[in-house]
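TODO from last week: model Oxygenase MpaB family protein.
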Amino acid sequence: MNIPVPRVSGLRERLGSSLFTRVAGPAGPDNRARIHGAPGPRWFSPERPIRIVHGDASMFIGGLRALLLQSLHPLAMAAVAAHSGYRGDPWGRLQRTSTFLAVTTYGTADDAQSAVDRVRAVHSRVTGTTAAGEPYHAADPHLLAWVHVAEVDSFLRAHQRYGRRPLDGAGCDAYVADTARVARALGIPDPPLDRAGLAEQLAAYRPELRATREAREAARFVLRHPPLPWVARGPYAVLAANAVSTLPPWARELLGLPHLPNIETAFVRPAGHALTSAIRWAMKPPARPAVRPPRESAATPNSPASPAR
């Protein structure tokens, strides 16, 4: 039986709008219009790899992986647990992060710098002590660098497995180099510039990483108790399973997460490809007017990182 085209179009619009609202928040449409429509130079031109990666549905998987991996640094996790409000307002935190990524990736250079300045001001006020008595400061370049490399590794690995247009080797290195532009603005003095540097920096943090009580609680919250209606739990479980499947074995072991390679190959990964394709379909950008926008403002307006970080 053929489904009428208007019905399919309406379904896509409803699904896309629901996803967009979750990720971007109530201010999403206004933010999107400003990010993509405001005239002015950008940090990244339209063809740069960072725009390809951050505009793809694979970011849903990469973002979950990044949260799990980042939680393994006890100082970073203590700061998140004490100051981020991820339990009380998880969607607000997601929307703020999403808008930040969108502004720095697609927005004007002035807006990108303003977003960075706001984040740095927040970091400067986040201090405390872990349960083990270790002091932390969110503005510490060493902690910022850990959050950065864990995020970049997660986004890139998710994109290379689930993205619509996986990058070649040179493109992967260029993506890492693109993200270094934002990292330096945030106060990270020596971010990696290619995959070799990224792997080296990740390995250097290994002796510092462990699964604290806060990290395990965060993993349980993210993977098992997401604040979602029951109808959305199934698709979310697919995203979560694929995020876990891309973690390195040592990270899974620290968090007590299972490693079932046969099941992952036969079921988890195909389901991840199917779901990201469905998200990509649902969030397809709306038709643009005939008037062509300025070249530097062209982007993917309904992408996961588009109003949104």
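Done. The first strand starts at residue 127 and ends at 129.
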